[in-house]
Amino acid sequence: MRSREVNILKSIDWWIVIIYTILVFAGWVSIYAASYNFDDSSIFDMANRSGKQLMWIGLAFLLGGIIMLVETRIFESYAPLFYFLMIGVLAVTIVIAPDIKGSRSWLVLGPVSIQPAEFGKFVTALMLGWLFNSYNFNFTKPRNFIKAAAIVLLPIVLIILQRETGSALVYFAFIFVFYREGMSGLVMIAGLCAILFFVIGVKFGNEMIGSTELGAALVLQLIMLVTIGMNFFFTKSVKSGWIQLGIMLLLDIVFYIINSYIMVVNFVFVGMTLCGIAVIYCYVNFLRTRSFKYLTIIIFTVASILFSFSVDYAFDNILEPHQQTRIEVSLGMKDDLKGAGYNVNQAKIAIGSGGLFGKGFLNGTQTKLKYVPEQDTDFIFCTIGEEEGFIGTTLVIVMFFVLIARLIFLAERQRSVFVRVYGYSVASIFFFHLLVNVGMVIGLLPVIGIPLPFFSYGGSGLWSFSILLFIFLRLDASRMETYS
Questions:
Q1: pTM higher than 0.85, yes or no?
Q2: In the listed set 297, 318, 339, which residue is the last one of a domain according to the structure?
Q3: Are 423 and 407 spatial neighbours (Cβ–Cβ below 8 Å)?
Q4: How deeply is 336 buried, as exposed, middle or buried, from its count of CB atoms within 10 A (0-12, 13-18, 19+)?
């Protein structure tokens, strides 16, 4: 047993442990600064959030130490059991969890509240690793892709039913894992296009060009441009690409002149016509060459058109009113500085007032006077910006990127598909949390309630991120582990 412990200590990646420790304690200090009251005496006071967070930090290190002693084969062998237990807990949570701010996502166990969705991330990562490492698994086969997608989508659906949309969105981080394991880049492009089409459709949905809704017209033009780009990418014909682009621009100019000086033109009809011509062109080429690349373009174009016409319905009938308002504020369609835009506006004021070097520890006026709601949880990044300035926020972001880069490096050196997939899952989850949380606080993304790892106050988040990370450290350490 002692030989095994020595081997683990030698083979553990101490760079990750050091970065983790720095981030955790920097987060603890930031929580103290964010929740500080002028009559507070100590950062260790258990009556304050900083004192409670220190207790959870101690338990997180204890959990990490226990994980490092667990047999690695348990993580893979029991991954399906862990996953379906987690699915059961998520399902039960919908029914028995109390309503907290409109969400049923917290299980209250005496003095402790736990959010199962947070712990579901590492369980889902283990299950994906188990699937990808199963015998004769080939991710390029459609049925295997469906299996992997189902593993991710099932917890997403259950978490959305808990009315916890932010936590559900984190699970989309696994798309980066799919891409690493062989998923076509077209799926990533389609996802980015869907986001772009949705944003443009919503932002310009109430503006008109003649008798045409500007948002719908612009989306159809973008669909046409992407279709032309895909044609060029697949055929490698520069001449054909320029001809198609030229025809599109010429027709746009002609119809714009007609709309301005002769008669009102329905630009949605024009866009549909152009897309229809592109689909017919691809279909003719498919019949001529029997290349399924042209069918891919047809499917993308038709699906994009159907999606574009569903944007208004989805925005008006599926999203909750507060979600609609947050998106409108983020897109600059509304100010609402006293309502949905209040948090972000105050956060930007706090970060901007920090300047280059910040106001100094415990000297932030926005945070001390509690102008920013949730400033020690989802909006803790603004506390760092106000007190530590641009230098402090940059250091935090750089530390996270070093952690993510190190995780990817470790994942790539693994001999086991299971460990590699799990490692990429860990890196993807941290990247998604960092991107969305910082983007949310500085107003680039809608407010969706995603915490900043190791910084946001709370035991569930800290423990889930710690477990997520230490399982990978244990799996990586087993590469060189020997037994006596």
A1: yes
A2: 318
A3: yes
A4: middle
